[in-house]
């Protein structure tokens, strides 16, 4: 049980040091507005100020023929390491287009001299809802400017934006060493988990290799993950757009944790469904939270739920394969 304490400690420390106010301090801050001189308009958007909310504004589209919205470009100040976007976004009757990304969107696009611009979503939804947005994205090496884009991407409906702010951040003094210390706690915890599995299973290398593959995948920096994914799809000749299809992420996460569940459960002489489920759920939680420390990666509740679904499916297959499952199936046929 010692590895449970170690990993729980790593989880708590990671959540603490990755709090925006703890890890970073503000270098410069902006409050973008559609009424400033350097705003860029896309496809003649319909814009209006909100009388009920000073500083708020509305973007509207009556059809789905074009990307309509506004954008601003900011030079990256010296020493900036991350950029933070804050706003409250209210959307009403936004009709999503045929493609998943055709909806109400707030995004950041980083521009570097020797690299292709890279866009990351800050907010992307359809329907009617309101959401408080507060996201931090690490700047790419060599990033010279950042574009903030608020658009209806071939989507009709209205989008209200309140309190939009963009801040350039730098790490507080000494925070780099704190992050190194948290990484050491993670290594300590994962080593304990691997040691427990090595001494509690048959064919010891199988479940450990499965867990190692999961951890290697989730600790790979975002740029390296994208490059690896592009290389994998280029071999069979698939379109590079397949890499960013949302279902690919679901399938990869589900398969990874389903395989890990099968390898662990099949090689445990003391097969126990609750114990295997608890250990794999802990691994899934850790695999998401640790990504808060990895450049270009983030912890996502949706990914965690997909991981748990993969674990449940893998354990279900093992249960059916074992005598108890086969006996239950035979009784159901009688």
Keywords, please?
334 residues, alpha+beta, Jelly Rolls, 2 domains, 6-stranded antiparallel β-sheet, 5-stranded antiparallel β-sheet, 11 strands, 42% helix
Structure overview:
- The chain has 334 residues and is an alpha+beta fold.
- It folds into two domains: 26-171, Jelly Rolls (Sandwich); 200-333, no CATH class.
- The chain is built from nine helices and eleven strands.
- Strands 1, 3, 4, 6, 9 and 11 form a six-stranded antiparallel beta sheet that branches. Strands 2-5-10-7-8 form a five-stranded antiparallel beta sheet, with no helix packed on it.
- It is globular, with a radius of gyration of 23 Å.
- The two termini are 42 Å apart.
- The model has no long low-confidence stretch (mean pLDDT 83).
């Amino acid at each position: 049980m010692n590895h449970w304490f170690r990993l729980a400690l790593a989880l708590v420390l990671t959540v603490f040091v990755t709090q925006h106010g703890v890890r970073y301090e503000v270098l410069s801050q902006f409050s973008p507005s559609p009424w400033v001189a350097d705003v860029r308009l896309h496809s003649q958007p319909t814009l209006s100020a909100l009388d009920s909310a000073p500083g708020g504004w509305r973007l509207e589209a009556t059809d789905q023929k074009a990307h309509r919205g506004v954008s601003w470009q900011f030079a990256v100040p010296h020493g900036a390491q991350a950029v933070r976007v804050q706003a409250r976004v209210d959307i009403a009757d936004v009709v999503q287009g045929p493609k998943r990304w055709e909806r109400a969107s707030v995004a950041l696009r980083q521009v570097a001299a020797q690299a292709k611009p890279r866009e990351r979503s800050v907010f992307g939804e359809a329907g009617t809802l309101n959401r408080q947005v507060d996201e931090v994205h690490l700047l790419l090496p060599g990033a010279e400017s950042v574009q903030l884009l608020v658009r209806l991407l071939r989507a009709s409906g209205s989008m209200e934006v309140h309190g939009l702010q963009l801040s350039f951040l730098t790490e507080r003094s000494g925070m780099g060493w704190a992050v190194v210390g948290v990484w050491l706690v993670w290594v300590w915890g994962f080593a304990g988990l691997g040691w427990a599995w090595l001494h509690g299973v048959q064919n010891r290398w199988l479940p450990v290799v499965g867990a190692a593959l999961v951890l290697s995948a989730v600790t790979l920096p975002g740029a390296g993950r994208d490059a690896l994914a592009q290389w994998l799809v280029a071999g069979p000749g698939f379109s590079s757009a397949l890499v960013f299809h949302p279902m690919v992420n679901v399938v990869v996460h589900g398969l990874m944790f389903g395989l890990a569940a099968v390898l662990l459960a099949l090689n445990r002489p003391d097969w126990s469904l609750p114990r295997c489920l608890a250990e794999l759920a802990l691994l899934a939680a850790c695999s998401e939270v640790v990504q808060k420390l990895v450049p270009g990666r983030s912890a996502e509740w949706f990914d965690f739920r997909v991981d748990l679904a993969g674990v449940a499916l893998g354990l279900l297959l093992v249960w059916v394969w074992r005598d108890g499952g086969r006996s239950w199936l035979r009784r159901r046929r009688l």
